[in-house]
Write a structure and sequence with these properties.
Length: 224
């Protein structure tokens, strides 16, 4: 039996944000989410919010990592975008037309739920609390025991706005495994830009310095 179930009756695609050009490859996933590609070998992964070209899925396969990746892409539900995606030879055939608030997957199916520059940006609890509660609940529902949800970026100044989501995750048996600031080198930032009378200059930064981003790792224990 596969992971797909009948999607819910609600259509949230109208609430999503235009994603053209928001591409995120395998190295970006490793840096922002703090994962190693080797750890994904043999795993079943839900990628919440794939980019238009689905670079993560493509590059993971090209790296010889044998994983089953299901991706969520609301664009597939739009007639004007569907054919373009279907004509892409690199399109992941496990991509589904859905959103994080109503995942069309059965319970306890995924080893990893990965969310990078998706729900934490477009469904931030400080701006859309009800939508954030839905994706928090849905991500926990589809996660296997022993599995992990990894979300980035969270922003340092908004920890408290996630407290309603922490309560949902705790009620559903998840534990915060890690909440840490992401270093500049992890997100590929090697320079800063500043302007003086002669124009823009690029100055090196200390790669050990912290960025404005935080990474949240949640785990569903094998035993409760």
């Amino acid at each position: 039996m596969g992971p797909l179930e009948t999607p819910g009756k609600y259509d949230y695609t109208k609430d999503t944000t235009f994603r053209n050009g928001r591409e995120r490859g395998l190295e970006m996933y490793e840096g922002y989410l703090g994962i190693k590609r080797e750890a994904l070998e043999g795993k079943t992964i839900l990628n919440v919010g794939t980019g238009e070209r689905e670079e993560f899925e493509t590059e993971l396969a090209e790296a010889g990592i044998h994983s089953k990746v299901y991706s969520v892409n609301p664009d597939l539900s739009q007639p004007e975008d569907r054919q373009r995606l279907l004509n892409n030879p690199q399109w992941n055939r496990n991509t589904v037309a859905s959103v994080a608030q109503a995942l069309p997957f059965k319970d306890k199916y995924f080893d990893y739920v990965l969310a990078m520059f998706s729900v934490s940006v477009f469904l931030h609890p400080g701006e859309n609390l009800e939508g954030a509660k839905l994706w928090a609940s849905e991500s926990a529902r589809v996660l296997k025991r022993g599995g992990e949800i990894i979300i980035c970026p969270l922003y340092k100044n908004f920890y408290k706005e996630y407290e309603p989501l922490y309560r949902i995750w705790e009620r559903m048996g998840l534990k915060i495994q890690n909440l840490k600031n992401v270093k500049l080198h992890e997100v590929g930032m090697k320079f800063i830009s500043w302007t003086d009378k002669t124009g823009n200059h690029r100055e090196p930064v200390d790669p050990k310095e912290e960025s404005d981003y935080c990474r949240l790792v949640l785990q569903k224990p094998l035993k409760t």
